Amino acid sequence: MSHKFFVAVRNIRPETELSFVGEIETEEDFKKINWSIGVDENGFSITTTTCPHSEITWAKVKEEMDKL
Amino acid sequence: MAFATIDVTKGITGTLPVANGGTALTSGFINGVSNPGKFLQIQHTNYNTAVSTSDQGYVTTGLTCAITPSATDSKIFGMFKLQARGNGLTSSYEWGYACKVERTGGATGTIFEEKGGTGQAYSTYFYANANTTQIAQHSSFQFLDTTHSTTSAITYTVFAKVQSGNQAVDFQNNTFPSQFTLWEIAA
Fold this sequence. Notes:
The structure holds two protein chains of two kinds. Chain A is of the alpha+beta class. Chain A has one domain (2-67). Chain A has helices at residues 2-12, 27-30, 58-67, and strands at residues 18-21, 34-39, 45-48. In chain A, helix 1 (2-12) crosses helix 3. Chain B is mostly beta strands. Helices cover 0% and strands 47% of the residues of chain B. Chain B has strands spanning 39-47, 51-53, 59-67, 75-81, 84-88, 94-105, 109-114, 124-128, 133-136, 140-145, 154-162, 167-171, 178-185. In chain B, strands 3, 6, 7, 8, 9 and 11 form a six-stranded antiparallel β-sheet that branches. Chain B is elongated and about 80 Å long. The mean pLDDT of chain B is 84. Strand 1 of chain A pairs antiparallel with strand 2 (51-53) of chain B, so a sheet runs across the interface.
């Protein structure tokens, strides 16, 4: 199931870096995604739960997932 | 079979082997060592919540294990098995990940890392196309923490990162568990 989500995001924006717990099936799940905005000096991802990519929205991702 | 009682306090000198079933040395020597190492405690975690990532920076896999050392100079031996399912998101069918263990609490810092470079430099790696298939599988890891210097609780957390943003990894996918075990061994 996560494969479908990752492919949908990639179709909208290739090489988008993110992580999440569980599955992304609803807009509520989508709001809990950790989006990478960089890497610190120890190699840890710097993340935010606010999607930094304007082209990626839950509606767009859902649309792509439904096509797959 | 006849058994005889031997008074080992008289007439026996030198280094003695450990007797079958012998425990609890309070003085003297075992095989010439007065302070033989021994297991002090064991902690174990079985974790099956799915965590997915396409991040090239380290993010948590959710797998942790905590221990409170009974001595500052003891050793903590850790073993963990990461369950992972790779997702190649492009036509190259390629994925790989690196992982490391970070301490928090009584001790801090990185205690273990399978350093990732590029391509097959990742120790857990898969690649396939029409002509070739390459698999580098290494999902069980071990480390020895000899520097914790604390008797406060330490939490060890496994972090991972993927090789490329066009790849993803699902840890503990479909509730298949990852496991983490810590042994404390006396100095």
